[in-house]
Amino acid sequence: MGNFVNIGLIGYGFMGRAHSNAYLQACKFFPHTIEPRLRVVCGRDQKKLDDFAENWGWEETENDWHRVIERPDIDIIDICVPNDMHKEIAVAAAEAGKMIICEKPLAKDATEARIMLEAVRENGKPNMVCFNYRRVPAVALAKRIIDEGRLGRIFHYRAKYLQDWTINSNLPMGGSQWRLDAQAAGSGVTGDLLSHSIDLALWLVGRIQRLTAMKKTFVNNRPLERDPSVLSRVEIDDACAFLAGFENGAMGTFESTRFARGRKNQNAFELNGEFGSIAFDFEDMNFLEYYDYRADSSYRGFTKIQVWDGDKHPYMGHWWVPGCGLGYEHTFIHAMSDFLYGLEQDRKLCPDFEDAYQTQLVCDAVLASAASGEWSNLQVLVPSN
Ligand code: SOE
């Protein structure tokens, strides 16, 4: 491996850009002994691919992902394509002995995710799934507050993930709008947005035991991107909400929609515990609200912690002076940097395929409950090994 890890990036859309930027920045802001090398990017449209490669500094381009995986000089396969391609690429990459970084959700469903998990268990190499919100400094601080026991027993986890970009019924589906196509995405907001809230819930609170869900499709037919004169049936969930019981006795409520007018990327949660509460909203991502019941009662109240002190807050020692906040792209820079630390220190990095598989099980249980109207019990779904 030397001092470099050679990356083969499959896909050059929104996430391809986020990951490319993260590879370029990770070693400039965080000290690493291993550096990512942007070796080859793979996609179908050669003109777009060339422009992408030139802009981000990828050394070579390739049109067939199989050929990227066959290359002995590639150490890491980074999967940034629609969900329906994750399984085939990840399994082939695992069989070829590669490390894998995969965009979320891990797969279209838990059956596929299970196959991918078994492939990486077999290959034994480091892997990571990009649930990037764990790497927001305020969210990492929330994790620290919980782990230090400052909230005491957790009673409630209340999550909402709201967007509004699919309200227009003329918005086409398929092609670049693959998130609206159930064949490509697997599900709608459940896999795309709720998976983030579930990943955070499993990380911050613990395992979910049972749940009951409701989903809704508000626009039932959409024009196809490749031929707007054709209206096609929409099979994804535009909105989904569920009520959950955690193994540790906490109660969870989760809501997600792409039909919340004015909400662009409101990934928010609140935790209420015996000794305090914390609240986070990604649209105000440089802050964490904290209520400390054990503070002096004359001054007690929700405090808006400004998460930007280098000597106190996660990741911030590597960035700017206090008051100069961070943004969306930093979550990916932190993810790639943490992955490199995992390699350098030979330790398991989370969330990996194991964690993302658990999230996928919850997503499947949510969709099953929404379809049947019954409670889903997760204990029967979690594999014993
Ligand atoms: C959907 O609009 C989307 O891009 C998700 O796919 C991302 O995971 C989320 O972080 C932002 O919104």
Descriptive notes:
- This protein is of the alpha/beta class and 385 residues long.
- It has 2 domains: 3-132, 3-Layer(aba) Sandwich (Rossmann fold), CATH 3.40.50; 133-372, Dihydrodipicolinate Reductase, domain 2, CATH 3.30.360.
- The chain contains 10 helices and 17 strands.
- It has helices at 14-29, 46-56, 65-70, 86-95, 110-123, 137-147, 182-185, 189-204, 328-344, 353-372, and strands at residues 4-10, 35-42, 60-62, 76-79, 99-102, 127-129, 154-162, 208-216, 221-223, 231-233, 239-246, 251-257, 266-273, 276-281, 287-292, 303-306, 376-377.
- Helix 1 (14-29) packs across helix 9 (328-344), helix 4 packs parallel to helix 5 and helix 8 (189-204) packs across helix 10.
- The chain is globular, with a radius of gyration of 21 Å.
- The relative contact order is 0.16.
- It binds alpha-L-sorbopyranose.
In short:
The protein has 385 residues and is of the alpha/beta class. The protein has helices at residues 14-29, 46-56, 65-70, 86-95, 110-123, 137-147, 182-185, 189-204, 328-344, 353-372, and strands at residues 4-10, 35-42, 60-62, 76-79, 99-102, 127-129, 154-162, 208-216, 221-223, 231-233, 239-246, 251-257, 266-273, 276-281, 287-292, 303-306, 376-377. The protein is built from ten helices and 17 strands.
Descriptive keywords:
10 helices; alpha/beta; binds alpha-L-sorbopyranose; Dihydrodipicolinate Reductase, domain 2
